[in-house]
Every structure is written in structure tokens, then in C-alpha cells.
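$ run holo --ligand "S-adenosylmethionine" --emit C-alpha cells
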Amino acid sequence: MQNAYLEKDKINPLSLANIREFTQRLWKDFLDEKSFAIDATCGNGFDTLFLAQILGEKGRVDSYDIQKVAIEKTKMLLSEKNLLHKVHLIEKCHSAFLRPASLVVYNLGFFPVSNQVVTTTASLLLQSLEHALSFAKAVSITCYPGHAEGKKEKEAVEKQLQLLPPKLWNISFHSWINRKNAPCLFWLTKQSR
Ligand SMILES: C[S@@+](CC[C@H](N)C(=O)[O-])C[C@H]1O[C@@H](n2cnc3c(N)ncnc32)[C@H](O)[C@@H]1O
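-- output --
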């Protein structure tokens, strides 16, 4: 029998070569068109754009970044695609969110086109995660252990997530184990009761 998921989206199971593609598939499966999502690190705006594309007119994305340049880049990208009306851009640290949402996504690390090296940090991430876990139904955390702060973040998040009760949260970990310092993903979904 054909796998229903592959049939539905015509996915080539051999194409999972890239972490962004992999995470975006999980988000797409999880969200419905009226969902609210949070992009906790908007950067260039690629993840925010993807979320705005898959959500319907009643959906919404709140996108956070501490750098003005990231907020402006994301604004420009979303305007070009006529999707800015679905997105609320917030120039603010993700340690506390203004509104809840069913999905929170973190794509950690630094803003790739900026000269300034402003990277996410383990301590702010843990604060943010605690807040996200109080309302979200799913959380996606992409880590880049190939740089020093990224390694710290990955280890800190892993330690924290191991403490969460399995009756409340399903937590899986994905990586490309034959690549040195490959990015990795923690994918959390709340148990439905
Ligand atoms: C790897 S980039 C995100 C990539 C982005 N999602 C995309 O699709 O292009 C990480 C971003 O996190 C931002 N950042 C760092 N610390 C932050 C914080 N405490 N709160 C919110 N954003 C933060 C950085 O400014 C940077 O733009």
C-alpha cells in the first residue's frame, strides 16, 4: 500500500538532504490554515515566509528578532510576496513572547548577512523555551553545534528537554550522523489528552 503522506505531498523520501526542508515538512503537517505560529528568530525571513505561505488568510505569524536589519529584511521579503498582512514583526528578544501560538520555531545561530556577529544564546533560549512550553502545542528547535555558542545551546537544550515529562511531551531528535557538525533538530509535540 502507498504511504498516505508521500502520496499527498508527492515527497521524494530520498531528498531529505537539508535541515530546513525537513523542519518545514514537519511544520506543514502540524499547522492548519487558521493556526498561529511564532518565528522566534526571523533573520533573513525565510522561515517566516514559509509559515506565511502555508497559513491561510486567518492564520498569523509573530516574528521576533533583536536586530533591526533582520526585521527590515523580513519585512521586505514578505512585502515582495504580498504576505506582510499575515505577519507581525517584533523587534524584541524572544525571552518572552507577546502572544501565544500553537507552534514556536527557533532557527538558532547568527544572522548570515550581517557584519555584526549577533548570535542566539543558551541562557535566553532556555528562558524563551520555558515560556513557549507554557502555551505551544509544538516547538521546533534547529541547532548548529558547529560553532561554540551553538554547541552550548544544543547541549543546554538537550539537558532541559530530557527533564520534560513524557506524558506531556513527545520529543524527538534528528541529525545527519555521517556529517561532522551537522545541524540538528529537536521536535516537540504536546500529548493530546
Ligand atoms: C540563524 S538566524 C535565523 C534564520 C531565519 N529563521 C531565516 O529563515 O533566515 C538567527 C537570528 O536570531 C536572532 N537572534 C539572536 N538572539 C536573539 C534573541 N535573543 N531574540 C530574538 N532573536 C535573536 C539573530 O539576530 C538572527 O537574526
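-- notes --
Helices lie at 4-9, 19-30, 46-54, 68-80, 122-133, 148-161.
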